[in-house]
Amino acid sequence: MSTESGTEAGTPGPTRRERNRAATIAEIKEIGLQRMHESGTTDVRFAEIAREMGMTAPGLYRYFASREELLTALIVDAFDDLGTAVADAREAQPEGDLWGRLLATSAAYRDWARREPQQFSLIFGMPVPGYRAPDEGPTTEAAKRAMGQLQTTFIEAARLGKLVPPLLDGVDEAFVKGINEAHKFDHLMPDAWDGDRTEVAEALTPATMQAMLMFWAALHGFVTLHAYGHLEWLGEAAQEALFRSTVEQGARCAGLPTAP
């Protein structure tokens, strides 16, 4: 049985003060995004947010210790929002339908970027002047969660024995060194993965890792052009056809199954 606050019986819910604080934080972030959208930049100014909320700029520091902390929160929200959209699209497809899942996640990525251009710019656009994300902090973890859906597709294909060598199998030593130094498999393996990690690691060769990043680069390039209206001259049907071809070509080059 639940109480009026929606919590389980005997478990105290948030106090009125905590609810008010959470609501104020949400409003600050919403206004910050609105100001970005109106100005066409990814910068935020405490003074402008405070003025719109009827507060003093110092008053905002009770909720965010600095402009950087607010930007970090907005970036985490953006990655989480993107990750949720992509994960939901992937899980809506039948398990084992690798092509269907890849196409769905790619489309969700594209549609989210078009729907949330300011958030897309915040995480994938020009760096915000004067801002540096904390090393291995919340933005890094949020980015891994969001971008892990593409990696999961490759892992699932390897687990099902449907991942074949990519068309381009030559890999420069500098790339191999780069992915090794980045501890590639530390962030590739989802916490929920219960299979043989060694087997999957062997399947995700440097050539496949390279192909995966090349696939993402091609997809991201299309998404960026689409999000900012640079493909409008093609018309909706032609844009959709080009998008599907981009995803299918990328899958074939990367060794993933494509449309039946």
Can you put this structure into words, describing what you see?
The chain has 260 residues and is an all-alpha fold. It has two domains: 11-64, Arc Repressor Mutant, subunit A; 71-254, Tetracycline Repressor, domain 2, CATH 1.10.357.10. It is 66% helix and 0% strand. The protein is built from twelve helices and no strands. The chain has helices at 16-39, 46-53, 57-60, 67-91, 98-115, 117-124, 138-159, 173-181, 184-188, 197-203, 206-227, 236-254. The protein is globular, with a radius of gyration of 21 Å.
- The second-level CATH architecture of the largest domain is Orthogonal Bundle
- Count of DSSP H/I helices: 12
CATH structural class of the largest domain? Mainly Alpha
User: How many strands?
Assistant: 0
Report the helical percentage.
Answer: 55-70%
Defining key terms:
single chain, 260 residues, mainly alpha, Arc Repressor Mutant, subunit A, Tetracycline Repressor, domain 2, globular
Q: Quick recap of the structure?
A:
The protein is mainly alpha-helical.
Which helices and strands occur, and which strands form pairs?
Elements: H1 16-39, H2 46-53, H3 57-60, H4 67-91, H5 98-115, H6 117-124, H7 138-159, H8 173-181, H9 184-188, H10 197-203, H11 206-227, H12 236-254
Helix pairs in contact: 1-2, 4-5, 4-6, 4-7, 5-6, 5-7, 5-11, 5-12, 11-12
